[in-house]
Here is the input.
Amino acid sequence: MKTLSRIYLFLIFLFLYAPIVVLVIFSFNDSAVASRSVFSGFSLRWYSTLFQDGMLLSALRNTLIIAVVAAIVSTVLGTAAAIGISGMNKWMRRTVMNVTNFPMVNPDIVTGVSLMLLFVAGTRMLGGASLGMASLILAHITFCLPYVILSVMPKLRQMDPNLSEAARDLGCPPLAAFFRVVLPEIAPGIVTGLIMSFTLSIDDFVVSYFTSGTTQTLPIFIYSMTRKRVSPEINALSTCLFGIILVLLLVINMRTAKDTKRIQTSAKEV
Amino acid sequence: MKSKSASLPYLVWMVIFIIVPTALVFVFAFTDKSGRFTLQNLQGVGQYSNVFLRSIWLGALATVISLVLGYPLAYIISKARASRQNVLIMLVMLPMWMNFLLRTYAWMTLLEDSGIINHVLNLLGLPSVHMINTQGAVVLGMVYNYIPYMILPLYSVLTKIDRSVVEAAQDLGADSRKVFLRVTFPMSMPGVISGVTMVFVPAVSTFIISKMLGGGSNLLIGDLIDMQFLGSAYNPNLGSAISLVLMVLILICMGIMNQFDENGATEGGVMV
Amino acid sequence: MEKVSIVNLQNIAVSFDGEAVLKDFNLSIDDGEFVTLLGPSGCGKTTTLRIIGGFVRPDSGDVFFNGRKITDLPPHKRSVNTIFQKYALFPHLNVYDNVAFGMRVHKKSEREIRAKVGEMLDMVNLKGFENRNVNLLSGGQQQRVAIARALANEPKVLLLDEPLGALDLKLRKDMQVELKKIQQQTGITFLFVTHDQEEALSMSDEVVVMDRGAIQQIGTPLDIYNEPKNAFVADFIGESNIIDGIMREDFLAEFSGRKFRCVDKGFQPNEPIDVVIRPEDVDLVPPDEEHLTGVVQNVNFKGVFYEIIVDVQGFKWMVQTTDCEKTGERIGLSIQPDEIHIMHKSEYSGTFGDYSTFSDEMDEDSSPLPGNGEEA
Here is the structure.
């Protein structure tokens, strides 16, 4: 039984990681355009072409701008929303939460298409410019919001409902009570929402695809590269992204591991 | 209470960016190019019924394969030591952190006629196999991309099953097979349900996987919609009608799935 | 000492979702007293507290504090402080910072704060706990921090919302003594909410018995025990046999088919009345013509005494006695005139006071959930 499960684990992880390993290996392939299956010597040439690609760099810049703005706006808006929703009566809360959940159950492509219709109608009505950064940011905020709300709500529910009353009772005006007492309590949920929004925004292709006009984000740039069929730069790009993610996750993991250790030996730790 | 007003900006946002766009889909689906009411778009969807059937078939197939492959994995992980569990779950999630276009692209390089798998086959003296641009390749792409969405909710439900419940079943005379069939599996149903929805919904509505791995011959619903909005067949009214049908289809599926969940307590599982 | 009213509620009415919680409610609380609001869950006692704290705005009526109208004053501007049911300690702050919170809000100097926090922690026996994480304290310790935190603000009135409800029995008894001591030391007016009648009787200077959003009786613990105003109070405070009767004339009541001498007067001739007889006030005698007689139905050993249920002409009496009786035995009940308490009929007549469905478990079940239905 034990060996069987070992073998099973091995096969599944082989399935999950083989394509990524292949990408990484072939990112160092010296071979020119033609073959993606023959390794003909080590080279970093695709990395250097990659970093000289102006399109890529501007796509990267766009992606980061969108992700930062969308994450911050949706976190602020979503946190306020969660606080408001938890103060609603049952019927109102259920209605609002059903609408909030809708973009999460709705297929991405339908969300993308519906927002595209909105933006096209909007620009036509307001006579504004065509779709671009603005519509991308609005769309990203929209699909990030439910995730922020859903990560803040449980923290609000776990919180002692009298906490903010206790602060006001001791002399805090309502807003100060929120910042001094409620915010520290729900901060973990807010941070989770922020990180989620940021990663969702960076990673999004489908909604961006329909709301970007001619503006390029990193996923859209990747998409146009894959359409060219043969472009080894993609391998290099994948490797870079994977490397960054790997390092980030390792750092986060090591830090949490350290934290738990510190708690365990709190007295002796320096 | 005053706190309600904190959600006011969001409520406005919700109306503009969730309710109005959805309403627009409805409006476009029921009007023609000049804005007059028509049912022609919806009737037009009928001619693509083979595409719908193919999408549902391939999506369902991918969902079942993900469940069959993912359940044992989630089960094994949930039985491992706590420290090992974390590592294994990290390993399941890690590929998801890579953009799914790149993950799908990786399979292109593997499956191509002159790709790595065929290359290896040739080296072993075996004949090449045509894999890219087939339905099999599309299903493979779906399974590869969405199987973590199956594993994570299953895992989170399985780890929460109270050990004493299993022990009680053993105490009452159930062998390990019966314990699994009568206790563990039924108790993991909420995880199965959320896993199935989380795989089926994106699988049935994808348009990238079919484009990249299915070639032009295996159109799915998503490709149809893409073509009507950003492609050669530009016709947002028809596209909206198709989107509407897709949306309704998904809502019906979710409704059916929720019926299975008697407690109605499906938690979203782990969302990443 | 002259009694001065510090909190005054006038004609208060509150309803939540169309359901009246308080109706035309009037209450005056004297400075320096330990006052308890006692009643079953849903009686409006927590709402009363929250109105004084400023967390519930009454639909009509006014709140006065030291003669000044404070109906529209927000909580943070009122010089009352609250001990919340589950203490509501700030989990992200340690013991010291929790107690210092109110003073920091009021911009006191750190030196002043340090002295006061020390004094408060000393008072609640938590010296040396300054840097502890409040989440890791026991229930009793958390309770003490909550008291120190509220008193550090030097309130004129301290509102306590079932503060002992979450503690186990032994700890609860200790805290009762300690709270009473703190109240006497500081001289601060305590307004205490509880559904536990024993707690109310042992701690309070004055008890306000409430039910269905209205005050049933106000008085000293002795008053409300010995002279309950209606069947509800008689039943809620301690155990009571409440029997239908008729006041024949002054000092003569008739019930259970017999005439009894009593010490009450001022009723209409032949007025229907409720008669209250406490279980410990009945003496058991051999059955004879002179006394009420009944059959022992059930005997329950309670340690100091036996609690027996006696069937007298179909009405089940509870009697507490040190004599051991046997089930099925016929006995006589002797009642002295000063142990008979006569009440006017009220809306509660006939709903309480018969022990035919009595059981120990029911007594425990009836302890209401804290705050149930009373939250705003």
